[in-house]
Amino acid sequence: MGIPARGSAVTIKRPEEIASMRRAGAILVDVLEALERELRPGITTAALDHIAEQIIIDAGAVPSFKGYGTNPPFPASICASVNDEVVHGIPSPRRLLNEGDIVGLDVGCIWQGWHADCARTWPVGRVPRRTQELIDATRRGMEAGIAMAVPGNRLGDIGAAIEAVAHEHGLGIVRPLVGHGIGRAMHEAPNVPNYGRAGPGCGSRQACASPSSRCSISAGTASTSSTMIGRSRPLIGACRRTSKTRSPWPTAGRRF
Question: Is 47 helix (H, G, I), strand (E, B) or coil?
Fold first, then answer.
């Protein structure tokens, strides 16, 4: 879920804790692969949610989204966001996917107390060329961010790499929604924007939930980067829980 981090302390994970998070992530890989196989015109987002939840439970893990938050708690195990919905779309038996849609599926699980969180955007059937280019550019932005997520770099290096790919393709970053630290809680410090300045400094006021972190990436740091890209610089509004762009253009997102 692309929500700013809560709390102020950046926690460093021990190797055995990283191993538990890696196992949680491997379960989510299985979930995403299964969801991709099931994507077709006519399927409902509620059916995709059921598939994801069953795989997580069968693997001995717990869906981390279901019951998350308050007023009211999130009701499903995945977020399913269609076309101009950026993130946090609520699955529904009434929401049919149609030929030409794009859908972002966001899923998280808990394995032995440790969280993993990821997302992917896919086309449903055939989509216009510009829409496929948006999806492809978002994947390249994610890969550019991953390449910069190494000890000694800074969070601004990750954001700058993602933003550069978006601008190269004439696209914009969804700035209000950011990545976050992850571990025992789904949302931990620091915040990880998809934009910023490379080199010394955060590159963003949002980046550091804790001044002591200095925005530097250390071995044992665990975080997600929520790569969310759209045409121009998308503005977003909220419809219940779901963040939507204030334009007819679709957006694409990936999380690592």
Answer: helix
Sorted by sequence, the CB contacts under 8 Å of residue 163 that are 6+ apart come out as 173, 194, 195, 196
Residue 192 β-bridge partners: 179
User: Given 3-state DSSP classes, what are the helix, strand and coil percentages for the chain, each rounded to the nearest 5?
Assistant: 30, 25, 45
Distances (CA, A) of 205 to 12, 50, 178: 22, 38, 12
pLDDT at position 199 is 81
CATH number at residue 74: 3.90.230.10
Number of domains composing the chain: 1
CA dist 54 and 46 (Å) reads 12
Distance CA 106, CA 145 (A): 18
Looking at this protein, which amino acid is placed at residue 245? T
d(CA 103, CA 224): 20
* Residue-range definition of the domain harbouring residue 169: 15-255
Question: Of the candidates 126, 135, 76, which has an alpha carbon nearest to the alpha carbon of residue 101?
Answer: 126
The Cα 139–Cα 211 span in angstroms is 31
190-233: pLDDT as tens digits: 999 999 999 865 544 444 443 323 478 888 899 888 889 887 55
Nearest to 159 by CA among 194, 121, 120: 194
Q: Give the whole-angstrom CA distance, residue 215 versus residue 227.
A: 18
Q: Which pTM value belongs to this model? A: 0.86
DSSP state of 64: S
